[in-house]
Amino acid sequence: MSTLEAIRAPLFVPADRPERFAKAAASGADAIILDLEDAVAEGAKDAARAALRRDFTDKPVIVRINAIGSAAFEVDLAAVTDLRPDAILLPKAEDARQIGLLADVLPCPVIALIESARGLANAREIAATKGVVQLAFGSVDFCADLGCSHTREVLAAARFELVLAARLAGIAAPLDGVTVQLDDVSATSADAAYAREIGMTGKLCIHPKQIAPVLRAFAPSQSEIDWARRVLASGDGAVQVDGAMVDEPVRLRARSILSQVDHPAP
Question: What is the pTM of this model?
Answer without folding.
Answer: 0.87
